[in-house]
Amino acid sequence: MTPHPAWPAPTPTGALSATVVVPGSKSLSNRYLVLAALADGPSRLRGVLTSRDTALMAAALTSLGARVRTEGTDWVVEPGPVRGSVQVDVGLAGTVMRFLPTMAAMADGPVLFDGDPEAYARPVGPLLDALRQLGVTVDDHRAAGYLPFTVHGLGEVPGGRVDVDASASSQFVSGLLLSAARFRDGLTLRHTGPTLPSLPHIEMTVATLRGAGVTVDDSRPEIWQVGPSVIAGRDVHVEPDLSNAAPFLAAALAVGGEVRVPGWPGRTTQPGAMLPEIFTAMGGDVHLDGDVLTVRGTGQVHGVDLDLRAAGELAPTVAALAALGDSPTRLRGIAHLRGHETDRLTALATELTRVGCQAEQTSDGLVITPRPMRAALWRSYADHRMATAGALVGLVVPGIEVEDVATTAKTLPDFVGMWTAMLGDTP
Question: Do 252 and 226 touch, CB atoms closer than 8 A?
Fold first, then answer.
């Protein structure tokens, strides 16, 4: 395998003053795309994130019978009968891997799911077991509960009641709910595991379903009931990706100055909504003026004790920022990150230790104790958020080189250009 070239992470010479326009939310984009492919008519999606994950979703939905085309910055989706005897490439996209097997259960033949080698470590077993409870045949081809696997479409899924342990990923719940309105009898879904991470992502799924006219009853804790109904085609705008805004906003705390992100929603189901509270606790001055979120910092970062169960995708940014802090940080509730693009807890502990910080894993998170850091290669593990975390450390530690920074194209295709433009605004 050809090694990826290392990117010298830039270190600014002064405080920041930058406005960063963040593209659309990957999580919302891919939910809207799935629902549009299952709708009763065409949909127009405005502001969809253009990235590897959304391109993989569009290609997969096209394989399954929908038509997806772009018109300027809009994406237009025309649904069609769900088609089998096809192969879906999930790449390293958890949303493709976990949202589409349920849709594939309605295909008129088998659908083979495969992806990047790194995706082979991402669990999908609880979702496949839930499909089997619904009478769907699923073949494992390598290891039970992992890629590759084949879903044998039934043409019609009866639906009914199903239990799923979503402790490893809330996407198991979302993947079942997104197609449930198309089941003959709808679906009653119960989470049976000890923990339920990333609850805002499930709330996001419920909100997108309701926006498309689907009735969802979530009045009982960890039980969701979706009635059979038509999914409406619609014209919808995608919010900016707040989690992708995290490293840019964190930069203001790391080196001082201010970073502004326009388009910040007043109300949202995105986990990134926690960022103002988090950055305030870590020493930032955070203000929302209209739809512009501004984070100001002095270059001094405070350690915190945070439960990130609801927003684990923010952990790499928070961990990198914590390494620059004036006291230890404890991150809790994120054991599920071991099943993300990589084992993020191990990756973060390894890379922070490599550059001189003290970082230790706990049963459900990390304890980060700041130490003087040094130049080193920061490995990305084909994980976009690991790459952006390395760039954040590199703002303060000269000589950090990020391996395979191009992996950020998964959700942020022009990360390097945006990052260097932010620093270019330094007075």
Answer: no
Quick: pLDDT tens for 294-334. 999 999 999 999 999 999 999 999 999 999 999 999 999 99
Q: Report residues of the chain scoring pLDDT below 70.
A: 1-3, 425-427
Conformation bin of residue 381: beta by default, left when phi > 0, alpha when psi is -120 to 50: left
Q: CA 58, CA 162: separation in Å to the nearest integer?
A: 28
Host H or E run for residue 195: none
CA dist 244 and 413 (Å) reads: 11
CB 188 within 8 A of CB 161: yes
Let me know: does 382 contact 92? Beta carbons within 8 Å.
yes
- pLDDT tens, position by position, 18-69: 999 999 999 999 999 999 999 999 999 999 999 999 999 999 999 999 999 9
Contact 327, 305 (CB under 8 A): no
What contacts 210, CB < 8 A, 6 or more positions away? Answer: 216
Looking at residue 233, its amino acid is: G
C-alpha triplet 131, 133, 138: angle, nearest 5°: 45
pLDDT score of 2 = 45
Q: What is the pTM of this model?
A: 0.90
Phi, psi values for residue 178, rounded to 5°: -65, -30
CB 30 within 8 A of CB 96: yes
The C-alpha atoms of residue 134 and residue 128 are separated, in whole angstroms, by: 10
| Strands of 238-291, DSSP E | 257-261, 285-289
Question: For the chain, how far is it from start to end, CA to CA, in angstroms?
Answer: 42
Neighbouring CB atoms inside 10 A of 317's CB total 26
Q: Which residues are catalytic?
A: 313
Mean pLDDT value across the chain: 96
SS3 content of the chain, % helix, strand, coil (to 5): 35, 25, 40
Q: How far is CA 71 from CA 16, 44, 48, 58, 138, in A?
A: 36, 9, 12, 14, 37
Q: Residue 152 carries which side chain, given as an amino acid letter? A: H
The C-alpha atoms of residue 400 and residue 126 are separated, in whole angstroms, by 39
